[in-house]
Amino acid sequence: MRLLLPIALLLLASVARADVTAAPQFKTGNDLYQLCSASPLFACADYVSGAVDMLIALDAAEGKCRYFKLKDGVRPEELGEIVANYLRDHPDERDRAAISSVLRALMAEFRC
Questions:
Q1: Chain-wide mean pLDDT for the chain?
Q2: Domain-by-domain residue ranges, the chain?
Q3: Angle 42-62/76-89 helices, nearest 10 degrees?
């Protein structure tokens, strides 16, 4: 029992130190393009699906279609391909945040 407290304090100190040195890292369009250019596209589709979920939730909160309207039955892999093609065709936009590339690609493909 007396040994438990020092061990707990050491663990707490190491966790606290890790939080201080860690910095958030956001994906850029370049990061997403690399992810989407790799095979298989699962990681790309996962990222894009998460972004789509967030953007759809924002639309729902507004109560109207502000960004895009997905077709029924569209699969995550298709969304990944759409974003990968958009990033391939628009290299000048890859230095922006990845989420903005996802939004622009889907707005171009699925208008409200």
A1: 81
A2: 26-109
A3: 100
